[in-house]
């Protein structure tokens, strides 16, 4: 038997433990580096990661094990691409233009996933010839090339004669939003989406209908903007606060049972298959940011002298907006500077969740929020006039 598809929590736990045990026994380096080494093939046989995986999950297809490890266990850089990264992408393309492009090499170099590299290339590809002479000029430094790239990008944005304006828009217009939603709905209704969950929408197939946009752009817009917009319209009471409450309520139980150490350990799509995991994370982070902000401001009001980093309690611009503390929630085993002025030390995930649970009044809204979730589960893609 060679099972494929979504991993169960039990399978994820088994595989992760087997890999971590192997790394702790045989490697003395960064976990990411060790996993990459295990993924690489040596000779004609399967990679070490497959051998480890098949021992604990004998019924799983090797490709399924490989893809799970590559996509879920390796921690990649995320967020906006830097100018230096885009320059390296262009250099890699021009250096290998008449041969096989080394996207795998670039993914390792930038510590980004192959999917990120592919999506960024689709964005850059229409304009690649505009940068050719600049990037290939041997007399220019990388700093000069980056400066020139910015100038070219500015000219391209202003000139409709060079490219289709829709390619460079930062938003998706209303007509396209409507078409995108209907396209996904048709695919979902016809059985073209496995298990009928938003996480399994085949975006490469959807992208064929919208060639002006990358799969990443379509996926993010649908998950973070379009679907929540539909749910707000159709299901009264649905909003980011409601999503944050149900997620925090569930995480509180997991923390209490000591099955997680950070949000990276939480499989939101297993508990809430009707809501995109990325949107859940956005809602939770937004809600906790507000809670932490209010907490810090309230504590700081009790002092009539400025705080600085030399004391027991740190007060920086990052801390005041809650970002430095909240970022720690998304890294395994990270802890935060204490917010307790009486007992300096560490505030862990359990305390942060407890604070959020109380301030967001999760218990009070629990019954109403559950009813909304049930409605969404019955009709994942409701008919809606956008």
How would you sum up this structure, described in words?
- InterPro entries: Homeodomain-like_sf, SANT/Myb.
- This protein has helices at 9-26, 31-39, 48-56, 62-73, 83-95, 103-110, 114-124, 128-136, 142-158, 165-168, 174-189, 203-207, 215-234, 240-256, 268-271, 277-300, 317-320, 323-328, 349-359, 362-378, and strands at 336-337, 346-347.
- The protein is mainly alpha-helical and 386 residues long.
- It folds into three domains: 9-73, no CATH class; 83-168, no CATH class; 170-386, no CATH class.
- The chain has a two-stranded antiparallel ribbon.
- The longest helix has 24 residues, at 277-300.
- The model is unreliable at 158-170 and 304-347 (pLDDT under 50).
Keywords, please?
about 375 residues; about 60% helix; about 0% strand; 20 helices; single chain; SANT/Myb; 2 strands; 3 domains; mainly alpha; globular
Classify the secondary structure makeup into a structural class.
mainly alpha
How many β-strand runs?
2
Low-confidence stretches: 158-170, 304-347
What's the pLDDT, averaged over the residues?
Answer: 77
Could you spell the SSE succession in H and E letters?
A: HHHHHHHHHHHHHHHHHHEEHH
CA radius of gyration is 24 Å
Q: Total domains, how many?
A: 3
Shape: globular
Query: Ends: how far apart?
Result: 45 Å
Biggest sheet features: 2 strands, antiparallel
């Amino acid at each position: 038997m060679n099972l494929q598809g979504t991993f169960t929590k039990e399978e994820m736990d088994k595989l992760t433990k087997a890999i971590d045990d192997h790394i702790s026994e045989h490697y003395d380096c960064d976990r990411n580096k060790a996993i990459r080494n295990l993924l690489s093939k040596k000779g004609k046989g399967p990679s070490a990661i497959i051998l480890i995986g098949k021992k604990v999950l004998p019924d799983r297809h090797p490709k399924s094990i490989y893809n799970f490890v590559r996509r879920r266990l390796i921690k990649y850089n995320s967020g906006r691409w830097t100018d230096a990264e885009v320059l390296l992408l262009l250099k890699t393309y021009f250096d290998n233009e008449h041969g096989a492009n080394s996207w795998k090499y670039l993914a390792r170099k930038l510590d980004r996933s192959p999917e990120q590299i592919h999506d960024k290339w689709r964005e850059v590809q229409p304009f690649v010839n505009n940068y050719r002479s600049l990037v290939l000029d041997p007399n220019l430094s990388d700093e000069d090339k980056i400066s020139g790239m910015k100038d070219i990008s500015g000219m391209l944005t202003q000139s409709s004669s060079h490219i289709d304006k829709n390619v460079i828009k930062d938003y998706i217009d209303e007509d396209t939003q409507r078409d995108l939603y209907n396209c996904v709905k048709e695919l979902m209704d016809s059985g073209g989406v496995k298990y009928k969950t938003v996480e399994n929408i085949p975006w490469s197939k959807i992208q064929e209908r919208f060639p002006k946009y990358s799969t990443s752009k379509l996926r993010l817009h649908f998950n973070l903007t379009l679907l929540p917009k539909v749910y707000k319209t159709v299901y009264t009471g649905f909003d980011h606060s409601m999503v944050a409450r149900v997620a925090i309520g569930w995480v509180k139980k997991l923390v209490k049972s000591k099955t997680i150490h950070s949000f990276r350990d939480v499989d939101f799509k297993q508990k809430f298959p009707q809501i995109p995991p990325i949107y859940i994370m956005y809602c939770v982070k937004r809600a906790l940011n507000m809670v932490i902000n209010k907490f810090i401001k309230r504590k700081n009001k009790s002092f009539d002298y400025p705080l600085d980093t030399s004391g027991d309690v740190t007060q920086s611009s990052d801390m005041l907006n809650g970002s430095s503390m909240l970022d720690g929630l998304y890294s395994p085993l990270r802890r935060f500077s204490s917010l307790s002025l009486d007992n300096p030390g560490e505030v862990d995930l359990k305390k942060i969740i407890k604070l959020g649970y109380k301030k967001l009044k999760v218990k009070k809204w629990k019954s109403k929020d559950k009813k909304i979730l049930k409605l969404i589960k019955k009709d994942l893609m409701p008919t809606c006039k956008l």
